[in-house]
Design brief:
There is one protein chain. By secondary structure, the chain is mostly helical. It has ten helices and no strands. Helix 4 crosses helix 6.
Length: 210
């Protein structure tokens, strides 16, 4: 998987960067692997990114700026400390730095920042690419129960520092917030494909927690 990701990253860098050279893509890929490996993470790691990229490949035709969406997916969780609440902002800062190293245009970086911001899932994303990125980040909610169960256990591992009571309180708050939405997914495609199963998965977890 590592080599496949590197090759995919190289191709993306060639499309969005000004330099079109292997040096910048190799350097920035090593930066990515370092960030996604520190601190060690059970869920918000490069495996997560790989799964999102696979999901994105199925719906590339829905994207307005495909390279911008893909770059945002690559970087949206590059900074992740479970005890912090500003991971998306810090990931956006890192994305801007890497885009700068690649020589990407300033307007590209601004769009990437906006796309990473929607992965906080605290407001309704705007139509178009923001909605697509938000939905892609939530695809695990509509996965098979086997995959969803693995995801929730990984999240539990990442927040083990909080203790069982605090984790349960926070997790139930998240699940209730998602279930109480009129729609979990912002785009018609994901809502049609995953909405019902996502609600079923979350309700099952909520019942077990309760």
């Amino acid at each position: 998987m590592h080599e496949q990701l590197r090759q995919r990253w190289d191709r993306l860098c060639e499309r969005i960067g000004a330099f079109r050279s292997a040096h910048e893509s190799d350097l920035t890929f090593e930066m990515l692997t370092t960030m996604y490996g520190h601190p060690p993470r059970a869920y918000h790691n490069l495996d997560h990114i790989s799964q999102l990229l696979i999901a994105f490949d199925d719906v590339r035709g829905l994207a307005e700026d495909r390279d911008c969406v893909e770059f945002a997916l690559w970087l949206h969780d590059c900074v992740f400390f479970a005890e912090r609440s500003d991971n998306e902002e810090r990931s956006a800062d890192a994305a801007a730095m890497i885009a700068g190293l690649l020589g990407a245009k300033p307007e590209f970086t601004v769009r990437v920042r906006d796309l990473i911001a929607v992965t906080r899932h605290n407001v309704e994303p705007a139509r178009g690419d923001p909605a697509l990125v938000a939905d892609l980040d939530l695809t695990i909610l509509g996965a098979s129960w086997e995959n969803y169960d693995a995801y929730r256990k990984a999240i539990h591992d990442e927040y083990a520092w909080a203790g069982e009571d605090l984790f349960k309180q926070g997790r139930m708050a998240f699940l209730n917030r998602m279930i109480d939405k009129d729609r979990v997914f912002a785009t018609d495609w994901f809502r049609r494909e995953l909405e019902r199963r996502a609600r079923g998965n979350m309700q099952r977890e909520l019942d077990e927690l309760g």
